[in-house]
Design a protein that fits this description.
Number of helices: 11
Order of helices and strands: EHEHEHEEHEEHEHHEHHHH
Number of strands: 9
Distance between the termini: 35 Å
Shape: globular
Length: 273
Amino acid sequence: MEKLDNYTVIMSVYSKVKPSDLKISIESILKQSYPPSEFILVKDGKLTVEQEKVLNSLTDSNIFKIIEFKENMGAGVAYNKGIDECTNSWASIMDSDDFADSSKFEKQMRYLYNHKDVDVIGSNAAEFVNDINNVISNRIMPETNEEIIKFAHGRCPIIQPTAIFRVESVRKVGSYQHSPLTEDYDLYIRMILNNCKFYTYQEILYYVRTSKDFFKRRGGIKYLKPILSFKYKYYKNGFFTTKQFIKTFASSLIVSLMPNFLRSYIYIKFLRK
């Protein structure tokens, strides 16, 4: 059997994550068929007593590197700190309340072993409420580099927590940068513009925790303004053509301002599988 590359998992934890969800998330990484050689856990501000108990019970192995921020700095800052501290060539961002299939990293790392030109590999994902058996929708993403780049001219082309990325390639484009609500999309566009290669593993290997309020949070002027600002930025720099910009601008505007019940229907019927 081939010797796969080592990889790092980076996880940011803040005080609002339920301890039980945090435990499930970390355990899903520790139970991987091909586990990480490094697990960087960033405490993004002061955690609760119950969260600390979970971490103390699970982080006693030598793969863990614990980083603590005195105040909540936000996910992007936490991820960048993890990327700075990473000692492997490959890394993945794991959300602290999601769940990774036990075969996820072995399958993706084996693909990377056989495709040396790929800089980012994602996977498809399922969205669930409360329990991973309660899946409400699936996210099936474009597979090939060409399809992913085409998709990126309308929506974010990679489900961020499913991705394993070449650390050097992410550092080369400036890692995560300030871009409210679109930090991952912003990163992937910069990587596309830097001629990075992408692939999506066509299996559901990751489970994203969501809630009944998910679609409500995708609406309103407060949500809409940073999205439109982001898209205008990449229209001005030439990533979006005028036609693409008008299409994506209009779709964001309509979906954000429609009633919640209709937005939920649109997301599940047309933006999910």
